[in-house]
Amino acid sequence: MTFRGGTRYQSYYFDSDFLANPDGQPRYGTWTMVVTRPIEYQAAPADPAQIYEYYCYDVSTESSLRMRLTLDHSGYYAGDPVGVSARLTAAGLPVTGASVVLSTTSPAQSLANWLAGLTVPADAMAQAAQQLQGQDATPILIKVLAAQIAGLRFDPSTQPGSLVMTDSRGIGTYQATYTDTAVPSSARSTSPRSGKPPTAPASAGKESSACSCRCGPTRSLPSSRCSSGPEEP
User: Comparing C-alpha atoms, which of 188, 210, 203, 220 is closest to residue 68?
Assistant: First the structure.
């Protein structure tokens, strides 16, 4: 156990080994917090009703809520639906009846599509071609440089969204299908987030996971990646 304190606060920190107390009686169960006021010496007795002090306390515990995120395929392409599953457990047991929402971030437009439909001034194209003369430069690279010379900038803005994930089988696995994948991009992410369900322990807290997937314009650019971790309870 670790103690930290000052004139206006006191904190105790302990881990699971302290609660288990392998060499003695386990410390699990109900704890009682006792707050005492230092004795003050006064010239005359004070009215007990006038002797008071406000205080507050917080109890922070490690969350037992865990979420494991999976996708239905290892690669995705523009237009493919993305199936997302979130396995939610508390202390290793499945959690049902939770509120799980899939937050999404997708590109507003594709860089390749924007560049294909872009009209670049002829003088900028000529200047770009001259700068890249003698180099291994493709027409696309020349147009990219010409757009920069002309002051034309791609807007990398994104569109947020959300989907409610459902546990249709009642086994603690929540699912949703994300279909807004028409724009090719390597910057697409999904983040399921669960609220504290009624059946979860008091120390469950909240849990979030993150996944990013690349929806390529052709069948040669599959990519997806997932990770998860508990939030602060």
Answer: 210
